[in-house]
Amino acid sequence: MNQIPYPSLPVLIVDDETEILRSFELTLRAGGIKNIMRCQDSRDVQTLLSNRKIGVILLDLTMPFISGDELLPIITRDFPEILLIIITGNTEVDTAVQCMKFGAFDYMVKPVEESRLVSGVRRAIKIRELQYENLRLKERMLNSRLDNPEAFSEIITNNETMLSIFQYVESIASSPKPVLITGETGVGKELMVRAIHKLSNRQGQFVSVNVAGIDDNIFSDTLFGHVKGAFTGADKMRKGLVEEASGGMLLLDEIGDLAPDSQVKLLRLLQEHEYFPVGSDLPKISDARVIVITNKDLQALQKSGRFRKDLYYRLCAHSIHIPPLRERLDDLSLLVDYFLEEASHSLGKKKPPPHEELITLLSNYHFPGNIRELQSMIYDAVSNHKSKKLSMDQFNAHFAQEGSTERTDSSRFFPKHDSRFVGSKPLPTLEQANRLLIEEAIRRTNNNKSMAARLLGISRQRLARHLKSKSK
Fold it and tell me: Which three-class secondary structure string do you get for 86-122?
């Protein structure tokens, strides 16, 4: 695969002086901006823009043949999506005002300070890429299609929410910005990371590190490396994982547990694209794309002061929340069939047909471990399978083990958005509550009395008595 340099859309430098072109390019490359094109003849600009998507243009005003003054209104008229930065030796305020009126994004006077040039171009790139990504996302949403469905082959789903996430992932895949992926344990966050990596077309390595519980010194050495003599025992230079991920992706797992001092260093890496190896006074530039995943609520952590607010908002450039299995129960049949096939092949057994009540039974379980828990349950059931149909015994044993935990959490039975007992309504009587509970159990189990009794924690005979007394 070919590496996509930063930014995804190139920066075009238009100037008739060779030395200026060379100087600007070297400055931008040193600042991590490597996707650069040059144009020394202003007559070629319009043809070039017609044949190639450009993100940002650095345009000199004073040039032979076609001046920048003439090109500026033409470009803003025919290619309004391109951000133009005017660079000129003219210090007159009227000229700057006129350029801004014609749609220039920024105006810089020669000689331009290197830091001013890099920061100005970076700001333009961020705005341009946000516009481009929004456009691509709108197109995908309207078309309701995936350009690369094979990238998501490891994620078994037909759920509309998941498919819309796939469309979003395709639209941001080539972006250099960080991606924050949240979701409960076992929902498939790592699979989504792999899909992003496949779609990104980055040539560099995919490097992963779990940052939970590691102190700041280990974090710095692991990610940024060290120079020889940085500390006792550092007898040779060591590359960090950030350098190993150059041109690729760096995954930071369990980011919600990152130590406060380490959060500061990660923020610098994301903001400035630079880092300091331990013991070094010279920064290194990184073009690795950072992806972070967590099952923690980062918004709640930053409100409580345990996670930096500026880092949280920097990570939210692209945010993906993967819904829990209980919110995508329409995938249960697909997942059960897939894991039955997988488990049977892995264990060297013939694939058993599932019990007809299995999906209904699973539909009424909370799944705190989500898809990973479902996979483990099916592997356990297949490994103990002896009869024609897949036995329900292993599933019932698992539910019995988890039952006490589930029943202590009333929010699982009375969710805030769907409670019969909220607001100013009077509470039902105990008899009414019993009737409502039985009706709900019957509904959830598709009128299966045995399963309804199991959900209610009573015998089938007792349920039958309740139903009989209700009918009188």
Answer: EEECCCCHHHHHHHHHCCCCEEEECCCCHHHHHHHHH
Task: Give 365's DSSP letter.
Answer: -
The pLDDT-based confidence of 413 (bands split at 50, 70, 90) is very low
Report the alpha-carbon distance of residue 378 to residue 345 in Å, rounded.
Answer: 13
H/E/C letters for each residue in 387-398?
CCCCCCHHHHHH
Q: How far is CA 322 from the centre of its chain?
A: 9
Domains of the chain (ranges; CATH) run 11-135 (3.40.50.2300), 145-323 (3.40.50.300), 329-413 (1.10.8.60), 426-472 (1.10.10)
Beta-bridge mates of residue 249: 206, 289
Task: Evaluate whether 283 touches 275 at the Cβ level (below 8 Å).
Answer: yes
CA distance 16 to 287: 30
So what's the pLDDT on residue 425?
58
Confidence of residue 420 (pLDDT cuts 50, 70, 90): low
> Cα(33)–Cα(23) distance, rounded to whole angstroms?
13
pLDDT, average across residues 148-173: 92
Nearest one of 167, 159, 461 to 327, comparing CA atoms:
159
Rounded to the nearest 10 degrees, the angle between the axes of helix 216-224 and helix 260-272 is 30
pTM above 0.70, yes or no: no
Question: What is the mean predicted confidence (pLDDT) over 330-341?
Answer: 94
User: What 3-state class would DSSP assign to 88?
Assistant: strand
The set of residues, in sequence order, having a beta carbon less than 8 Å from that of 193 and lying 6+ positions away, is 181, 249, 251, 291, 293
Strand 11-14, strand 56-60: pairing: parallel
Contact 201, 4 (CB under 8 A): yes
C-alpha torsion angle, residues 233, 237, 243, 245 (rounded to 10): -70
